[in-house]
Design the sequence.
């Protein structure tokens, strides 16, 4: 089941005896676990019927003992086992998992990795008796859409452009993304369309000096703006690491290489073929018109040299501003 499916079932009061939450993306695991911890029992019921255990500090017998107790003045007990991946003897829970108490909700948070499904007996017991969530890290391409959806859940409207800028700055750390969206919601009214001014003020992402503005300046061959942005990057290395920017520029020119082939297609087909949001189709078409195939291939070579120099390999210069400026000078030389 997805996290959304599980939350829908829980909000309708349909409880399972075991929830097994595993995977390398902890955000969705915490989302489900926290919901159960906060909402299944009311405050009065929690005192006698809810317990939180931690894998490093817990023996399997404690989990079973807590799960087998009868609820007091409540319909269920809630037992939450956090950091289950660190528990000695986790496999010994198999007998309980095969025959769980129907009056207990046992939540097992197994973080930072997928459960080893080669442990067939235990995995089969989980499949037969537990609601299972496998929480996967998002691909980079999925992050902007996720930002739009998370913002929508908070009552905010985020455009593809703003989502792309936030994704580039925040990466695929969903907990971090969620926190920044909640920060925006605290400062903005419901229904607000988030602007570049908002993310600069409340998230700390410059509206004028970010990788998308650099790509736009390079695509339009706007030399003064491109040089201004890389100077800002060189002076703010921590928030704009050069290796990350090289990778983003490589992906950008890869898209331009594809875009040259499909300039005459309609915007939606064009966007699908080069794998960008249709919102950016016209911008990519314009940029692709400014670079022929030879210039794009040359850009790949310059980026390769830029990457090596930034890592101290065959470096003619070590200052980041100089590395950026050399790249732009040679890129715009044609």
Sequence:
């Amino acid at each position: 089941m997805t996290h959304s499916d599980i939350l829908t079932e829980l909000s309708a009061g349909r409880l399972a005896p075991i929830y097994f939450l595993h995977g390398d993306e902890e955000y969705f695991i915490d989302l489900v676990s926290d919901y159960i911890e906060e909402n299944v029992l009311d405050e009065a019921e929690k005192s006698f019927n809810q317990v939180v255990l931690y894998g490093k500090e817990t023996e399997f017998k404690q989990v079973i003992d807590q799960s087998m107790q009868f609820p007091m003045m409540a319909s269920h007990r809630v037992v939450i086992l956090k950091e289950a991946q660190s528990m000695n003897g986790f496999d010994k829970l198999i007998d309980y998992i095969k025959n769980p108490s129907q009056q207990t909700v046992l939540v097992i948070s197994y973080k930072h990795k997928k459960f080893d499904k080669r442990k067939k007996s235990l995995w089969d017991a989980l499949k037969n008796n537990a609601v299972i969530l496998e929480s996967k890290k998002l691909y980079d391409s999925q992050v902007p859409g996720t930002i739009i959806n998370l913002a929508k859940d908070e009552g905010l409207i985020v455009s593809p452009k703003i989502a792309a800028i936030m994704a580039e700055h925040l990466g695929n750390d969903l907990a971090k993304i969620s926190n920044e969206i909640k920060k925006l919601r605290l400062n903005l009214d419901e229904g607000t369309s988030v602007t570049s001014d908002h993310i600069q003020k409340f998230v700390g992402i410059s509206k004028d000096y970010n990788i998308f503005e650099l790509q736009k300046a390079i695509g339009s061959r706007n030399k003064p703006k491109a040089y201004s942005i890389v100077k800002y990057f060189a002076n703010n290395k921590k928030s704009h690491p050069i290796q990350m920017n090289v990778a983003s520029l490589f992906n950008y020119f890869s898209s331009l290489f594809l875009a040259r082939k499909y300039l005459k297609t309609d915007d939606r087909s064009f966007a699908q073929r080069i794998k960008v949001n249709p919102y950016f189709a016209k911008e990519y078409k314009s940029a692709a018109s400014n670079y022929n195939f030879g210039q794009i291939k040359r850009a790949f070579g310059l980026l390769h040299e830029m990457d090596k120099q930034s890592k101290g390999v065959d470096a003619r210069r070590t200052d980041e501003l100089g590395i950026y400026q050399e790249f732009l000078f040679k890129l715009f030389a044609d």
